[in-house]
Design a protein that fits this description.
Blueprint (H helix, E strand, L loop, with lengths): L1 H17 L5 E7 L18 H9 L1 E7 L5 H10 L3 H4 L8 H4 L6 H7 L3 E6 L8 H5 L12 E3 L12 E3 L18 E5 L7 H16 L6 E6 L7 E4 L34 H4 L3 H31 L6 E7 L4 E2 L5 E2 L5 H4 E7 L6 E3 L3 E2 L3 H8 L28 E5 L1 E5 L3 E6 L2 E6 L17 H20 L6
Helix pairs in contact: 8-10
The structure holds calcium ion.
The site of calcium ion has 6 residues, from loops.
């Protein structure tokens, strides 16, 4: 009996030594994708069968928030594990310069711990479309990867019917640029004409290559749609005739209690869009989302076909959300729910499918996935390990999520405080989940407001105290 136990222990020894299973990690990040466009998050028009299927196989998080509502700082934060306040990586950088050479990014941490790490296309910040048209690295962090690939694509230079759906490109003040304008192209040709099509093809190729590899892999795949320009193969537009498009309800006076600032200025009025242009934008956004969905499907099929699905953690998310006409607002940068919340689906081998309503943040990915793969969590990164949620989706790790744009968002289960200093917005998310009734100036809620402001202040000071310390 003793001998048998000893023999079993000896057999288990290598597993015990490794401190956990070395699952592969497949991290798929979309760009500017709001959860509200996905079937699994309740959209009844936009077709996303592959992402919906993934959601039924893993844990779908309904209250996951980005740490910044635009590309650069959100990606720097989730990849390095620091809040933008702490790292000061608030612009279009990788975050490397700000956090310093001695810190390891999420991918680099895996690379240093026995993983083969690879990037395809936009993971750290890239300018879309300029870096995509050139096939350039953008604000990459080369030390994070064993191999990295860019996917050059024609973007708006592709052939096919094209239109511009805002009379004031960018929707901003005159002369502030047009990189956020609603340029639409129903492109001729197939998926492979485009950057994202090439990205998926490269991912499929690497998954086949990795099948024979001894090391586990950390493969990060970035899609650039549905970021503008809204360019996708024509076939994906076919499901969305303009007559079928339904805009969010237009509530008279809805804009009146939203403070005007640079985060809130991408409105229908500022973009000068008529109803057909608004619907056309939504239609092209949905086509772009369906395009990404089809490509996610191709990658997951390859993961299965190569027999690696059962030992791979699959993550699907976006760098932040997006407005599609709610409050007559468009785009990102606002810190309202549509812009600050992200889709987040994580499939962990051996864990049951679930829907998790607990608050979580993109910054939690680094420590959580490290723990799930048996890697040590670096002591000074600022996210939290939420891996307990895969065993029990009712587990709570945070009592509030924190995001930022022009201002700061503190999101508890019941309240959303959008803090702009003297001005702000306060919403009862249980009674008013669509954020129509701003209670910020309502004296009946002065106590609640003071409590939330104190909580936000404490949270920010805690983050700053714990900034970029020793590993
Ligand atoms: Ca983005």
């Amino acid at each position: 009996m003793i001998f048998r136990s000893l023999a079993i222990l000896l057999l288990l020894f290598p597993v015990l030594l490794s401190g956990g299973e070395k699952h592969n990690v497949l991290f798929i990040i979309s760009d500017d994708l709001t959860s509200t466009a996905l079937g699994c998050y309740g959209n009844t028009l936009c077709k996303t069968p592959n992402i919906d299927r993934l959601a039924t196989q893993g844990t779908r998080f309904t209250r996951a928030y980005c740490q910044a509502t635009f590309c650069g700082p959100s990606r720097a934060s989730l990849m390095f594990g620091y809040y933008p306040y702490a790292s000061k990586a608030s612009g279009y950088t990788s975050g490397r310069k700000e956090v310093g050479a001695d810190k390891d990014s999420w991918a680099q941490h895996f690379k240093k711990n026995g993983y083969h790490s690879a990037r395809i296309s936009k993971v750290f910040h890239m300018g879309v479309p300029p870096d995509i048209s050139k096939g350039s690295d953008g604000a990459d962090d080369p030390q994070s990867w064993d191999e990295a690939y860019n996917s050059k694509g024609p973007e708006t230079k592709v052939s096919g019917p094209a239109e511009m759906l805002s009379k004031n490109p960018g929707g901003l003040k005159k002369g502030t640029g047009s990189s956020q304008s609603f340029n639409v192209v129903e492109a001729d040709g197939d998926d492979l004409v485009h950057s994202d099509g090439k990205t998926a093809q490269k991912a499929v190729e690497l998954l086949h290559k990795y099948k024979a590899m001894e090391k586990p892999f950390f493969l990060a795949v970035g899609f650039v749609r549905p970021h503008v320009p809204l360019v996708a193969p024509k076939k994906y537009f076919a499901s969305y005739p303009l007559g079928k498009i339904v805009l969010p309800p237009k509530i008279p006076g809805d804009q009146d209690d939203i403070p005007q600032n640079s985060g809130n200025r991408r409105t229908t009025a500022n973009y000068q869009m008529d109803l057909n242009q608004q619907k056309g934008t939504l239609r092209a956004y949905y086509a772009s989302v369906s395009f990404v969905d089809a490509l996610v499907g191709k990658i997951l099929t390859a993961l299965e076909a190569t027999g690696q699905r059962d030992d791979t953690i699959v993550i699907f998310t976006s760098d932040h959300g997006y407005h599609l006409g709610e409050h007559d607002m468009w785009q990102k940068v606002s810190i309202h729910e549509e812009s600050a919340k992200v889709p987040l689906i994580i499939c962990v081998p051996g864990k049951n499918p679930a829907v998790c309503h607990s608050l979580s943040e993109l910054i939690d990915l680094y420590p959580t996935v490290s723990n799930l793969c048996g890697l040590k969590i670096p002591g000074n990164i600022q996210g939290k390990d939420i891996s307990g949620m895969f065993d029990d989706p009712a587990v709570k790790v945070r009592d509030a999520a924190l995001s930022s744009g022009k201002g700061r968002l503190l999101r508890t289960e019941k309240w959303a405080l959008l803090d702009y200093g003297k001005k702000g917005e306060l919403y009862d998310m249980e009674k008013d989940p669509k954020q129509y009734d701003n209670l910020f100036g309502d004296s009946n809620y002065a106590g609640t407001l003071a409590e939330l402001k104190a909580k936000l202040k404490a949270r920010l000071s805690e983050i700053q105290k714990n900034d970029l310390g020793e590993k």
